[in-house]
Amino acid sequence: MKDILKINNIKKTYQTKTGEINALDGISFTANEGEFVSIIGPSGCGKSSLLSIIAGLEEKTSR
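The structure assignment produced for this chain is given below.
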C-alpha cells in the first residue's frame, strides 16, 4: 500500500514559567492509502498538538 502520511520521531516541548512540558516524545506512525486512523487518549496527552503539527499550524520541537 502507498504511504499517505508518515510521522517519524515527533517531539513537542512547551515552555512554562515552572519549566518544560513534554507534550510529545518520539511519536511515530504511518497511515497507508485506504486506512482509517484514530488518535485517542486522555485529556492533555498531546492529541491536539500532534494534529496541529500535521496540519502545519505548529512546529515540532527540534532536538
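Interim note for the steering committee: The helical segments are 47-55. The chain has a mean pLDDT of 93.
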